From TrEMBL:
Record field: transmembrane: none
InterPro entries: FAD/NAD-bd_sf, MQO
SUPFAM superfamilies assigned to the protein according to its UniProt record, in alphabetical order: FAD/NAD(P)-binding domain
Enzyme class: oxidoreductase
Catalytic activity: (S)-malate + a quinone = a quinol + oxaloacetate
UniProt keywords, alphabetically: FAD, Flavoprotein, Oxidoreductase, Tricarboxylic acid cycle
Family, per entry: Belongs to the MQO family.
Annotated pathway: Carbohydrate metabolism; tricarboxylic acid cycle; oxaloacetate from (S)-malate (quinone route): step 1/1
NCBIfam families to which the protein is assigned, alphabetical: mal_quin_oxido (TIGR01320), PRK05257.1-1 (NF003603), PRK05257.1-4 (NF003605), PRK05257.2-1 (NF003606), PRK05257.3-1 (NF003610), PRK05257.3-2 (NF003611), PRK13339.1 (NF009875)
Name recorded for this polypeptide: Probable malate:quinone oxidoreductase
Keyword Flavoprotein: yes
Length: 490
C-alpha cells in the first residue's frame, strides 16, 4: 500500500487555499495534495462574479446587528465579524511582505462601506446602530447622516431624483474594501505549488473511508476519461462548498448526522457603463425583504475585477436543486438521511416566508428587477443593466433541541472527534473570515501541535490569540499597519 500523504484538500476555493497556505507555513515538510473537480481553480463560490466581493467586516451589513424585540441593538456579533476580518487583513499583509502574494491591487481595493435606509422606523434603527458602533474601537471613523447633501457627496446615485420628504439615513465607513477572492485564491494556490504541493484539476472525489490504521482512503476519478483511483491521507479537509455535505456524509462520521443544506442561487444586475460606474464608489447595503435569507440583503456595489470597475446590484434569489453552480440536479434529494429528514421538514414548515420570498423572486422580470434597483438608484435605466448568474449558496439546516430543525446563517466547521477530517458548511461571510475559520480548525484538529505553531502564527497574524476591540491603541495600530501594507487609502 502506498505511503499516505499528510493532507488532502478537497476543493479549489478560498477555504482550501487558506488552510493549505497556513499548513505550508507551519509545517513545510508536510505533503499536501489538492483535488478540484473542475478544470480551473476558484470557479464556484470563490469566483469574483459568483459573490459580491465584500470584505465582510460588519461595517455595513445590518444582519450582523439586528434590532431586538425591545428595540435594543447589540454590537457583539458585528465586533466578532470585524475581529475575524482583521485577522484576514493581517495574514494577507504578511504574505505580501514575504512575497507570497502579488501586489495588493491585484486582489483588494479601498471601497467605502455604506448602509442606506428609508422610512422613519429604519432611520431610527440605523441611528441607534451608529451610536452603538461609535463606542467600538474597530468601528472608528463611522459616519452618519440624514442630510441629502452629505449623502449625495458619499454616493450621488442614491440621491439623484430622490422623492422629496422621504425619511432616509446613511452610514459610511471609508475603510471598507472590495476583494477579488478568485484572484486571491489563485495566488495562494500558485504559492502552494511552488512550495511542492500537488494541485490536481479535473479530479472529482467520490468517497471517503476511514481505514484501520487511522488514515483516510480518498476515492476519486478523473473527470476526463473517468479513470478511477485513490489516495491515502492522514488528514482530509472538505472545502467543496455545497458538495461538502455529500462527502462528509460518505465519510460516515457521526458528527455530520442531522445536517442538511438548502441551496439558494443568485443573480446580480451588472453595469460597466463608465458614465454610471464613475458616479458610485461604495458598497451600499440596506434591509432585507421580509422572509429573505440574510445572504439576500440588497446592495449596490462597486466591483473591481482584473483592474476593471463595474457596479453590481442584488442579489435576486433563484432556485436550483444543485449544491454547486456546476452540481447535479439530484443533490437536494441525495442528501436525505434518516438523521436529517426531520430537521429539514421542520425548516420547511417553520419558514413559509422563505418559500413566499423565493417564489416572488422567481417571478420577477428584468424590468421588475431594475425597479428594485431604482429603490436604491432612482435614475437607473433598464438598458444599462444586464443579469449575471452568481454562485450557489448552500444554507445550513441542522438539528435543534427545541425547534427540531433550524435554518442557520453563516458557516460551520464539522470535524471528526479525532480531528482527522473536517469540512466546512454554509455561506456568507465565509471568504472574508476564512483565516479565522481555518485557525479554529487547526486548533481543533491539531491540538497537540498548535502550541509549537503559535510563534509562527503570531508572526503571520500579530493579534493571534487575542482580540483588538478591547484594546483601542492596538486596534488603531493594526488597522493603520494593514491599511499601509494593503495599499488602502482609508
Amino acid at each position: 500500500m502506498s505511503e499516505p500523504v499528510d493532507v488532502v484538500l478537497i476543493g479549489g476555493g478560498i477555504m482550501s487555499a487558506t488552510l493549505g497556505t497556513l499548513i505550508s507555513e507551519l509545517q513545510p515538510d508536510w505533503k499536501i495534495v489538492v483535488y478540484e473537480r473542475l478544470s480551473d481553480l476558484a470557479q464556484e463560490s470563490s469566483n469574483a462574479w459568483n459573490n459580491a466581493g465584500t470584505g465582510h467586516a460588519a461595517l455595513c451589513e445590518l444582519n450582523y446587528m439586528p434590532e431586538g424585540k425591545d428595540g435594543s441593538v447589540d454590537a457583539a456579533k458585528a465586533v466578532q465579524i470585524n475581529e475575524q476580518f482583521q485577522q484576514s487583513r493581517q495574514f494577507w499583509s504578511s504574505l505580501i511582505g514575504e512575497g507570497v502574494l502579488d501586489g495588493p491591487e491585484t486582489f483588494i481595493n479601498s471601497t467605502p462601506h455604506m448602509t442606506f435606509v428609508r422610512g422613519e422606523k429604519d432611520v431610527a434603527y440605523l441611528k441607534k446602530r451608529y451610536e452603538a458602533l461609535t463606542q467600538e474601537p474597530l468601528f472608528a471613523g463611522i459616519q452618519y447622516s440624514e442630510d441629502s447633501r452629505v449623502i449625495n457627496q458619499w454616493a450621488p446615485l442614491l440621491m439623484q431624483k430622490r422623492r422629496a420628504g422621504e425619511p432616509f439615513a446613511a452610514t459610511r465607513v471609508p475603510a471598507g474594501t472590495d476583494v477579488d477572492f478568485g484572484a486571491l485564491t489563485r495566488q495562494l494556490f500558485a504559492n502552494l505549488e511552488a512550495k511542492g504541493a500537488e494541485v490536481v484539476l479535473n479530479r472529482e472525489v467520490r468517497g471517503l473511508k476511514k481505514l484501520k490504521d487511522g488514515t483516510w482512503r480518498v476515492r476519486w476519478r478523473n473527470t476526463i476519461g473517468r479513470t478511477p483511483g485513490e489516495t491515502r491521507a492522514r488528514f482530509v479537509f472538505v472545502g467543496a462548498g455545497g458538495w461538502a455535505l455529500k462527502l462528509l456524509q460518505s465519510s460516515r462520521i457521526p458528527e455530520i448526522s442531522g445536517y442538511g443544506v438548502f441551496p439558494i442561487g443568485g443573480q446580480f444586475l451588472k453595469t460597466s457603463n463608465p458614465a454610471v460606474v464613475a458616479q458610485h464608489k461604495a458598497k451600499v447595503y440596506s434591509q432585507a425583504s421580509v422572509g429573505a435569507p440574510p445572504m439576500s440583503v440588497p446592495h449596490l456595489d462597486t466591483r473591481v475585477v482584473d483592474g476593471e470597475a463595474s457596479l453590481l446590484f442584488g442579489p435576486f434569489a433563484t432556485f436550483s436543486p444543485k449544491f454547486l453552480k456546476q452540481g447535479k440536479i439530484t443533490d437536494i434529494v441525495a442528501q436525505v438521511r434518516p438523521g436529517n429528514l426531520w430537521p429539514m421538514i421542520k425548516v420547511a414548515v417553520d419558514n413559509p416566508s422563505l418559500i413566499t420570498y423565493l417564489v416572488g423572486e422567481l417571478l420577477k422580470t428584468h424590468r421588475k428587477k431594475v425597479d428594485s434597483l431604482r429603490v436604491f438608484m432612482p435614475t437607473a435605466k433598464d438598458e444599462d443593466w444586464t443579469l449575471i448568474q452568481a454562485g450557489q449558496r448552500a444554507q445550513v439546516m441542522k438539528k435543534d433541541p427545541e425547534k427540531g430543525g433550524v435554518l442557520q446563517f453563516g458557516t460551520e466547521v464539522v470535524s471528526a472527534e479525532d480531528g482527522s477530517i473536517a469540512g466546512l458548511l454554509g455561506a456568507s461571510p465565509g471568504a472574508s473570515t476564512a483565516v479565522s475559520i481555518m485557525l479554529g480548525l487547526l486548533k481543533d484538529c491539531f491540538p497537540d501541535r498548535i502550541g509549537e505553531w503559535e510563534p509562527r502564527l503570531r508572526e503571520l497574524i500579530p493579534s493571534y490569540g487575542d482580540t483588538l476591540n478591547p484594546r483601542p491603541e492596538a486596534a488603531a495600530e493594526v488597522l493603520a499597519e494593514t491599511a499601509e501594507a494593503l495599499a488602502l487609502t482609508a
